[in-house]
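Justification of resources, computational component.

The compute hours requested in this renewal are based largely on the per-chain cost of generating structure records like the one below. Each record pairs the submitted sequence with a full C-alpha cell output. That output is archived, and it is also reused by downstream analysis tasks.
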Amino acid sequence: MSDLAPSDLATIYPAPSPRVIAKARPEIDAHAKKFIGMSPFCVLATSGSDGSVDASPRGGNPGFVHVGGPNLRPDRSGNNRIDSFRNIVEGSGFVQLIFFVPGIDETLRVGGKGSVSVDPELMASMVEFGKPPRAVLRIDVREAYFHCGKALMRSKLWAGERVERSVMPSIGEVIHDQTGLGERESQEVIYERYKTQL
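The structure output for this chain reads:
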C-alpha cells in the first residue's frame, strides 16, 4: 500500500464549494461569540518547534473562554506537563481550538496566533471556581468557522447513550499498571480529589 501524494487528493475528493471556503471568517463574529459563550468545553491544538502536535481538552463553566479583542482562555490546574503552553512559547505559536456545546451537533473552529500572559489584571478578570488562572492564553484570531454536525451525529455524542464508568479501571489504576508508580486509587477517591482541584 502506497501513501498518497498531495496531487492524488484532488483525484479522490471534489473541490469544496465556494460557500465552504467563504464560511471561514477572519475574526469572531456575533454567532461565534454566542457559541463560545455557551461552550463549557474545547480542545486546544498546538505544534512544537520539533513539529510535534499536541491536542488537549479544556473546560470550565460556559463562557470560560472570554471574547473581547483577542480571544482569551484561562489555564486551569492540570497535570503540569504544560505541553500546549510550551509549544506556544517555543514553537510557531499557532493554535487551533474546537468548541463544543452540549446538545448542538455543530462545532466551532478558531485558529490564530497564541501567546501566554501572566498579566495580574487579566488573570484577576478570569477567576473561576474561586481561583485565578496560573496564566492566560491570548489568541490573535485569524480564522473562525463552524463545522457541520455530521461527525457528532454519527457518533451520537449527545444522544444520551452513556458508558458506565465502571467498565473501565480508574485512571489511577491505569497509570499504576502502565508505570508502576503511584497508588491504585479508586475512581471515587480520584473524583473527590478532582473536586478540590478544579
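Residues 187-196 form the longest helix (10 residues). Residues 163-198 form one domain.
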